[in-house]
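Design job #97: recover the sequence.
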């Protein structure tokens, strides 16, 4: 598949080496795979995850994309942007209650044409159920469903293209893990002697191993690649932070001129440096850190100040009356 009608995609994304006395002491190299620079509105793994979903939606004749996310979801923003560029209507189903004024992320999504709906947290946990999906179809009609975070078989195939952009000398790749789609694809396409280390950003992330294996089985029929999860770097859970993490972010920016996203990338980089300083990796190891997304301040700043193209709707009023079981897309 070509890269479609999105102007300015930067592929392959740059790879840059960072210099740091901690790395020199340990005798290892660290390269940053700057997927955050692929596109200011659709950075990193967001484009890799969405490109084949978009192709499938178009092939099946859908005109609307529907997906899920929290109030600060990078995935909702990216889906809104891709939909706008590629000619799809977009619907974002947000976890929790509506809060006005909209935050910058949701405001940006709305400025790109996304219509927002809300589910309370209890209902949101059942978002994949037939009852909830049917309620969404009653409200919105036909749509192509993209799961929360964009992780499905199509996303795995897109992320599996990344290793071809790396030098053969790479020994280890670190990536942050939210829903697991990026790790599932990247790990499957690495050589058996290359190790992928995933850093879950939510507390209790060990359950993600089963999710990742499940994604790989959908595409490859089995667990694929050499990979593991390091689950002790969540700093309290998803979208949680501590003074220690903030200090690391400030120090990394001072040293390397890059402000890490505290939800994902900062936790991954903290894990990398912690393991380097504990001599987990032998001297001579080359490590790639996948910078798969940031919060693009410029794009968010250009969002309209609270403009809402269509009113948010109460999805839950349809749920009680839903009886018919339907597939997730139709």
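Job complete. Output follows.
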């Amino acid at each position: 598949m070509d890269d479609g009608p999105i102007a300015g995609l930067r592929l392959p994304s740059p790879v840059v080496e960072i210099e740091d006395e901690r790395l020199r002491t340990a005798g290892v190299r660290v390269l940053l795979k700057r997927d955050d620079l692929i596109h200011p509105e659709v950075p990193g793994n967001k484009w890799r995850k969405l490109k084949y979903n978009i192709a499938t939606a178009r092939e099946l004749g859908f005109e609307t994309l529907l997906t899920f996310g929290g109030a600060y979801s990078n995935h909702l923003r990216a889906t809104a942007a891709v939909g706008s560029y590629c000619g799809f209507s977009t619907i974002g189903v947000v976890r929790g209650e509506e809060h006005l004024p909209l935050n910058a992320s949701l405001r940006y999504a709305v400025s790109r044409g996304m219509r927002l709906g809300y589910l309370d947290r209890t209902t949101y946990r059942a978002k994949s159920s037939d009852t909830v999906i049917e309620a969404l179809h009653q409200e919105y009609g036909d749509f192509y469903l993209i799961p929360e975070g964009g992780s499905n078989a199509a996303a795995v195939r897109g992320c599996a293209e990344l290793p071809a952009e790396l030098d053969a000398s790479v020994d280890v790749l670190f990536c942050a893990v939210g829903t697991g789609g990026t790790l599932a694809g990247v790990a499957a396409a690495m050589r058996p002697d290359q190790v992928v280390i995933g850093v879950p950003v939510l507390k209790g992330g060990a359950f993600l191993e089963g999710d990742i294996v499940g994604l790989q089985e959908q595409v490859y029929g089995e667990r694929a690649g050499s990979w593991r999860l390091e689950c002790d770097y969540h700093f309290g859970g998803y979208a949680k932070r501590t003074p220690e993490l903030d200090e690391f972010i400030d120090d990394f920016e001072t040293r390397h001129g890059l402000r890490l996203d505290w939800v994902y990338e900062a936790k991954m980089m903290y894990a990398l440096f912690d393991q380097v300083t504990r001599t987990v990796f032998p001297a001579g190891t080359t490590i790639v850190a996948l910078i798969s997304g940031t919060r693009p301040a410029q794009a968010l700043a250009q969002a309209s100040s609270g403009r809402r193209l269509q009113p948010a709707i109460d999805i839950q009023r349809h749920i009680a009356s839903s009886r018919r079981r339907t597939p997730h897309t139709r």
